[in-house]
Amino acid sequence: MEDLPAEILPVIISLLPLKEAVRTSIVSTSWKMLWTFHCNLCFYGPNELDDDPSVPPLESDEEAAVDEYVKTSQAKLKMKQDKFIEAVNCVIQRHSRVGINKFSIRCGLHKEEFYHLDRWIGFAASSKAKIVDFDLKKIDSPSREVHQFPLEALVVQGSSCVQSLYLADVSIKPHPGIFGFTLLRRLVLEFVEIFRDFSGFLANCSALEDLELIECSGVTNLSIPHQLDKLQHLLIDRMAVETVESNAADLAHFEYKGKEIPIVLHGRSKLEMATIMFEGSNGLARAFTAVPIILRVKVLNVQAQISAYEQKLAPRPCGMFMHLRHMTCGLTVLSLKKPNSDNGVLQLVHCLNVAPLLQTLHLDMIYSYFKASAPAEVAEEEGPHMHHHGHLKTVHISGFRCYKAQAELACCILENARVLDHMELQPRVAAAICSYADLKNFAVERRFLPGVREWAQLASERFGKAITVLDAPSE
Known about the structure:
InterPro entries: At1g61320/At1g61330-like, F-box-like_dom_sf, F-box_AtFBL13-like, F-box_dom, LRR_At1g61320_AtMIF1, LRR_dom_sf. The chain has a 15-stranded parallel beta sheet with strand order 1-2-3-5-7-9-11-13-15-16-17-18-19-20-21. The longest helix is centred in the N-terminal third of the chain and has 32 residues, at 63-94. By secondary structure, it is α/β, with parallel strands linked by helices. The chain has eleven helices and 21 strands. It is globular.
């Protein structure tokens, strides 16, 4: 290593994690300052849920014992946080501030520790870091007081070098008077309290390409200004907004998760990808009938809860999805009875009918049971009529367990998809749709796999189509 050219060694050191890079300073005196040119300063503090072997296990559920356990755990956590703060301060004090690419802090701090943040923010700005992350989420917090993050502090001498900014669990006061973020291309806000004029601030971020807002508060009517003519991706996830209006001309990827609200996207119809997840049991139908902005997308991801007996779309859908080629659909069927008693998933047939040029369908299903009064009578309706599909080539269905409605849906597709190459069936519930998929998949190979294989063989012979049954989790 000593024989390496002088300009190569710092590059090698910069590829190491920061902690390991600092340790190289003890190798030799000539290496002592190499780490101070490390370009990625990422600091990950202690987590409230991390197990601490130094804390004696809880051996009693008595109140006094629980209180003592909590007190000991909090004291240990406080010691770790103090050590973390000391380490961050030590590093930024000795660092050269040259060539920094990323500055990241991930640690939940409390009010009495907020003054350290101001110093760290100042360091990120003065060192001209391109990527700045401040994730201050706290799992167990005695108060909901959050740090007021000073956006102005990232602007030095009228400009900011920040190209990517991620903030979590802070509050901000954006306004049109904040200039300098001319290089900002990615802005992600999670659990952020937003006060004052957010749209006015965004208008000054003309280079923005990616805007993600996740469970933020303080914005009632979200308006994306026309100055964001480079914006490609917009994500709005569980925001308490009443309307969304975007004037970003070149928006290509739109994602919305939350209650059904008016959504208006202006521009030149360049939207190619969309993800829609409406709350409530009518989310699938509403995604196809109430959001005309997605009519021109090529790729559509719909996640929805559906009632066991809702089968039809509105009589007059918003139009035909003539550009749609690839659709991913995650359905949670809210069932009152056993799966064979409902027909909710059949409404997907009507969705396929308004997408005549669809090429691939990826369908994830799960049934969720809850105790409630079942309807006294469920009207018998004629089975779904699927239009002939001349382009649908690939179909993948997870959570397929030969329930009556599932089998009927699969038969509709096999019969009407004229150029279908193959269909994949997977009895296992996909992790993408269910956080407790392992529980739902308990003994699935014994309980469902043989029946699915038998059904697939019979259906393949009947329709003359190749059907593959997957017996292992798909990637």
